[in-house]
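Collaborator request, handled under Task 6.
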Amino acid sequence: MPRSRLSVVPNADAVRFRPTRSRPVRVRSRALAADAHFEPHRHAWAQVAYCASGILQVGAADPGSASGEVTYIVPPSRAVWIAPDALHSVHVLQAAQFRTLYVDASVAPAGWNGCRVLVVSPLLRELVQALDEPQLARPRETLLTALLLDELQAADTHGLGVPLPPAETGDKRLRALCEAVLRAPAERATLAQWAADVGASERTMARLFREQLGTSYQQWRQQAVLAHALPLLARGVSVSQVAFASGYASESAFTAMFKAAMGQPPSRFQPRNGPTLAA
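Structure tokens returned to the collaborator:
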């Protein structure tokens, strides 16, 4: 039986957590159930979407990307920077301890006009937790904020986004191909086979991937596979099952790809207390 989605009002309590020039970083913590979601919204400040536990899916209109529309999968080791005024939505894939950093536009790093996935260092994780302490003295908050902003700018970036051509202005064949791949991540069809299904040549589709998404089909499909695999791993599905469900003939080949992309083996993204397979 499918779970009902819990809609969360994005702007509730916004005044309390709104950043200012004098307090440029505010941290808001919430425990969110699986399948909770924030409808598309925007605000004047930047946001860092991060979860201490669980997995999020963040969709954002991103003028910094070739496509302008990107879906990100966010495990606890990653965070998504969302620029001021960017339209975005959040869907909780696995019950999450959600920590949102609201960052005043005046202290946003220069050039960070789009969205990006940040690697959460141990220091950054601890700084977020420290700023989330109740009754934090203002001098300490000021010092922690300055260090956190410096650590944000120094954070490594990571490609965990799956860009899609805009629904209204993008090429319809490319959109249909991308959606077909996302619906069937285990399908091992070549680009030529997918292209034939949407009535185009392989050469045409390869060109559209470069022009409209700024990537090759092979690179895009790897991102789609990671987006498919991470929620399965988080639910406790075995690595071998996830590999097969992602179109890989062997667990070793999937693990090699995953480790090269994520810097850690897939087992690190599974529950530590054993499998929790969904019914």
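The cover message to the collaborator said: "The beta strands are 6-8, 25-32, 36-41, 46-61, 69-74, 78-82, 88-103, 116-119, 157-158, 161-163. Confidence is low (pLDDT under 50) at residues 273-279. Please let us know whether this matches your experimental observations."
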